Amino acid sequence: MEQTNFPITNWSEDDKPREKLMLKGKSALSDAELIAILIGSGSRNESAVGLSKRILASVDNNLNALGKLTISQLMTFKGIGEAKAISIMAAMELGRRRRAEEAIELKKISSSKMIFELMQPIIGELPHEEFWVLYLNNSNKVLSKSQQGKGGITGTLVDVRLVFKTALELGATALILCHNHPSGTLIPSDADKQITKKLKEAGRNLDINVLDHIIVTENGFFSFNDEGIF
Asked: What is the 3 state secondary structure string of 110-168?
């Protein structure tokens, strides 16, 4: 970027976040300033920073809540068209995926909390249920994680044969079951208990141990093993 002799006070409101990032680094910017860079411009009567502040205020300045807004919800703000809404949504999704990749670094599973930290960025905020399986080796290191079922708000179907087909292909010696509850409740349903029992029995026949079943929500988790249900 070419050097400018104009002081910051003479920069346009829309240019300030970009220039501030260049001069002071990304950590110096507020959430609103970062979003302003994404959307590029505001409306005729409102700067990009002002618009970004208004959007954030609508979700109590919570980035997790912002990430849940749909394109149509974002477009209700004057100055946010489809392209800007998509840019915001794409940035929120990249942030979620980064959290998921960072969590993968927790390779060796030693507690239910570690399972929660691994899976919460993936399924903790979904509006529907998904059933995932972590495939482990004999050192409890994660070989792979795989979605094995996807359903509605209140439940999902799981194919036991496919769960163990994947385990055999990977050479896994143990499994950890995970699914989310969009409702936020941490109480296992009868269906949750039944599929856990079914998978445990199938694993016993194949000498593949089912170590735990974790129910994940946005803010917490329930471990079948920790609660003695196993």
From this structure: CCHHHHHHHHHHHHCCCCCCEEEEEEECCCCEEEEEEEEEECCCCCCCCCHHHHHHHHH
Q: Which two tokens stand for residue 102?
A: 């960072």
Whether 210 and 196 have beta carbons less than 8 Å apart is answered as: yes
CA distance 138 to 98: 28
For residue 74, count other CB atoms closer than 10 A to its CB.
21
State CA 83 to chain mean position distance.
23
- Bridge partner residues of 222 (DSSP): 215
Residue 3: per-residue pLDDT: 43
Task: Sort 208 into a burial class: Cβ within 10 Å, 0-12 / 13-18 / 19+.
Answer: buried
pTM (predicted TM-score): 0.61
Q: According to the model, what pLDDT value does residue 96 have?
A: 81
- Token code pair at residue 145: 């994680």
